[in-house]
């Protein structure tokens, strides 16, 4: 098939605008008229440090990131951050609360399988984990965010972690949780919805997101971290208190001190991210994306609601993701996937752990693509169901 015939609804890696890939392809051969590929240029050259600076500046503009926050680029995807958060935040508490750190729990609000994985990693690394809420324990599956009055925070948590958009389960927080205890660092995994809506960065201690959904290609992760968290992570004292020392490659302070160049950063991935950021700035920024992504999701959810006998929407109202629309179609699923493939619609099969159908509408999915999917679904229903 030709690229122009395909609509890629994959949950990640996600589609990218062709014009961005075309520019990136040129940069891979010859970057900025240096005669050298971006994959060949030294990451320590001034041209690359300018690229990092420009990428950070564009991201700062897009998300309105305050001056007391640093932007880091690291490797290892969202998964590496599951570990990095534990090390860095416990080290921060070693500096801030040395007398109580050994008794501090790490609080995880779990609303889907990624949040659960993050909690499992914290436990694996030896942290005392408190699950604030896990609807699967009650319902046997993910699909809602229990009322905040039922959340069970620990006495004096080292931090609170949650995942803003659960990519597998299609569950998204509609807004910042209201009942978080004051003064506790809030850590958020925004891997699958960053840059799709405006939010107040100052409510968070750390925000992280892998690139391959909303801002580029797998290989880099953005970390937005409040500077006091950076400054207070103090490794030598960790050992004395029995808190693990952060591996250097996951250390936020080291990464920040080296402007994300402690070791070789994949500059091509940074360039693709910057192209996405520039494109977003030229097309109305995050506010515009917020309007579009709301519209795209509403269109599909209202079609699904129109045929309740055919489609079972996984998440309940109020928690439905704008990025990953998950639903079930019983024994019509196989036919649906196969016919949609014939039309060039790719990536609609649900995650292997849960099955069903998942249509992902990241920023690069044009509204027209969603309209075409809906048109197909209407004809599909008429053909097989009425
Ligand atoms: N967090 C969320 C919300 C995700 O969707 C994913 C991957 O899909 C991850 C974390 C893990 O990211 P990575 O594969 O980059 O490690």
Automatic annotation (TrEMBL):
<keyword id="KW-0663">Pyridoxal phosphate</keyword>
<dbReference type="InterPro" id="IPR022278">
    <property type="entry name" value="Pser_aminoTfrase"/>
</dbReference>
<dbReference type="GO" id="GO:0030170">
    <property type="term" value="F:pyridoxal phosphate binding"/>
</dbReference>
<feature type="domain" description="Aminotransferase class V">
    <location>
        <begin position="6"/>
        <end position="373"/>
    </location>
</feature>
<dbReference type="InterPro" id="IPR015422">
    <property type="entry name" value="PyrdxlP-dep_Trfase_small"/>
</dbReference>
<keyword id="KW-0028">Amino-acid biosynthesis</keyword>
<dbReference type="InterPro" id="IPR015421">
    <property type="entry name" value="PyrdxlP-dep_Trfase_major"/>
</dbReference>
<dbReference type="InterPro" id="IPR000192">
    <property type="entry name" value="Aminotrans_V_dom"/>
</dbReference>
<comment type="pathway">
    <text>Amino-acid biosynthesis; L-serine biosynthesis; L-serine from 3-phospho-D-glycerate: step 2/3.</text>
</comment>
<comment type="similarity">
    <text>Belongs to the class-V pyridoxal-phosphate-dependent aminotransferase family. SerC subfamily.</text>
</comment>
<dbReference type="GO" id="GO:0004648">
    <property type="term" value="F:O-phospho-L-serine:2-oxoglutarate aminotransferase activity"/>
</dbReference>
<dbReference type="InterPro" id="IPR015424">
    <property type="entry name" value="PyrdxlP-dep_Trfase"/>
</dbReference>
<dbReference type="GO" id="GO:0005737">
    <property type="term" value="C:cytoplasm"/>
</dbReference>
<keyword id="KW-0718">Serine biosynthesis</keyword>
<keyword id="KW-0032">Aminotransferase</keyword>
<protein>
    <recommendedName>
        <fullName>phosphoserine transaminase</fullName>
        <ecNumber>2.6.1.52</ecNumber>
    </recommendedName>
</protein>
<dbReference type="GO" id="GO:0006564">
    <property type="term" value="P:L-serine biosynthetic process"/>
</dbReference>
<dbReference type="GO" id="GO:0009113">
    <property type="term" value="P:purine nucleobase biosynthetic process"/>
</dbReference>
<keyword id="KW-0808">Transferase</keyword>
<dbReference type="Pfam" id="PF00266">
    <property type="entry name" value="Aminotran_5"/>
</dbReference>
